[in-house]
Design brief:
By secondary structure, the chain is α/β, with parallel strands linked by helices. It has 12 helices and 9 strands. Residues 191-418 form the PD-(D/E)XK nuclease-like domain.
Length: 432
């Protein structure tokens, strides 16, 4: 068998072939010997002709009336479908539906009879958001001033920490001279029993969240990038060590069909995160114990379909949007979502025999770096939403501390007030 010579340069041959194709644009690129180039009549672009001089072509529209009708119907259907998903139209539908329509009010219009615990929570969050509560350890004053570009940060931002022999070195351990976080913490800090090492680690993590926020803004990142590098880390940092409360990413969790809105224009909604009551292991050794196994109330303890069916009630719903999105869609999603949440809680109260008022539910909307808390309640046949308490922004290091403090306070509400509501319901012994 004759041998095949490989002495030619393959790259040179390919380049020559490409040059030949470029030289003759009429040669088809498909390797089909029966394919021949066909001449097509070129029509001038509309931009080359004055619109007033163009003439209508009725014959084209008369070619197939049936096809035109189908196309028109399809276009209308598609347009209507897109319109129903419009955030503005969805918000309008929420406000005009007959099933507990949404009534948005300013937080200053919140009535005094809403409950002392709710009023106290609102006041605490406003204090945090206004910068009137000390949320930063005094140890990191210089670091915060340097990162914020302030010559002197307000004293009300900082709270004292116990003084030890390691205090004078903790600032250097937390931040280097360039402002970046350093790993050179002293051995005496690692052994410090007053928790100073934990504060340094916390400061390092918040510093990283602040840096990631600037990166997301600079790159104009989409929502998943914000969630991965900013929102989830600060949620984890805020709930760290809290045995009674945990957070979950529930982006893929749908509302159970029986709690969805009957209005087809509203239907189902999803949100990104939730703060949940945790099952305490010392009180329930069986992880399958839940409201669905209660002889009194044959209902799950949440209105959504969690991947593992965990018996953990949802307390605070959180929706996030990047700066690429408008500011209407997120609050509309939360409003529709919390209406489904109330349907579930109302059914629980009904099955329990009544007598327990529905709780006021905080909902959190995160728009880019900014975090705000609204409050929803059922009142006079409406879903009233009081908005908005801006608690902070991860765009600054001080803002990261504010957001963390607000989430810690919400975690306390979940544990105490929301947990107490479940105890009054008398149907979930795992909450304490």
């Amino acid at each position: 068998m004759p041998s095949i010579s490989h002495s030619f340069d393959s790259s040179t041959w390919i380049e020559s072939w490409i040059e030949q194709l470029m030289a003759d644009r009429d040669v088809p690129l498909l390797f089909n010997p029966t394919l021949t180039p066909t001449k097509t009549s070129k029509r001038p672009r509309h931009g080359d002709i004055d619109d007033d001089l163009t003439t209508p072509r009725p014959a084209r529209y008369a070619e197939s009336q049936d096809a035109s009708s189908v196309s028109s119907s399809s276009t209308k259907t598609s347009s209507a479908s897109r319109g129903s998903r419009s955030p503005r139209k969805k918000e309008f539908a929420l406000r005009t539906t007959t099933n507990f329509p949404v009534d948005r009010r300013d937080i200053s219009d919140m009535p005094q009879d809403i409950g002392e615990n709710t009023l106290e929570l609102v006041g605490d969050l406003q204090e945090i958001g206004n910068g009137d509560r000390a949320v930063i350890p005094e140890t990191f004053r210089k670091s915060v001033q340097r990162q914020s570009g302030l010559r002197r940060a307000p004293d009300r931002w900082f709270h004292p920490v116990p003084r030890t022999t390691a205090t004078q070195n903790s600032e250097a351990a937390a931040t280097g001279s360039s402002g970046s976080v350093s790993n050179t913490d002293q051995e005496e800090d690692m052994l410090d029993p007053d928790g100073r090492t934990m504060l340094i680690c916390q400061h390092w993590r918040l510093h990283e969240i602040w840096t990631n926020t600037k990166t997301c803004e600079r790159k104009m990142e989409h929502e998943p990038a914000w969630n991965d590098s900013v929102h989830a880390p600060i949620l984890a940092e805020s709930i760290r060590g809290h045995n009674a409360v945990h957070y979950r990413n529930i982006t893929c969790c749908r509302v159970s069909p029986e709690y969805r809105d009957p209005d087809p224009l509203l239907g189902d909604n999803k949100v990104d995160y939730g703060l949940f009551l945790s099952q305490h292991p010392s009180e329930h050794n069986n992880p399958n114990d839940s409201l669905s196994h209660s002889p009194d109330i044959l209902l799950p303890c949440s209105h959504i379909q969690l991947s593992d069916g965990a018996p953990t009630p949802l307390a605070v719903s959180i929706e996030t949007k990047s700066l690429r999105a408008d500011g209407i869609g997120g609050p509309s999603q939360l409003a529709n979502w919390v209406r489904a949440h109330f349907r579930h809680l109302a059914l629980l109260v009904e099955r329990a025999g009544g007598g327990v008022p529905l709780p006021v539910l905080p909902v959190v909307f995160v728009y880019g770096a900014s975090w705000r808390v609204d409050f929803a309640e059922r009142r006079d046949g409406k879903t009233v939403i009081y908005e908005s308490v801006v608690v902070g922004s991860t765009k600054t290091l001080q803002g990261c501390y504010q957001v963390r403090a607000a989430l810690v306070r919400l975690g306390e509400w979940v544990d105490k007030e929301f947990g107490e509501w479940w105890r009054q319901l008398g149907s979930w012994d795992a909450v304490r």
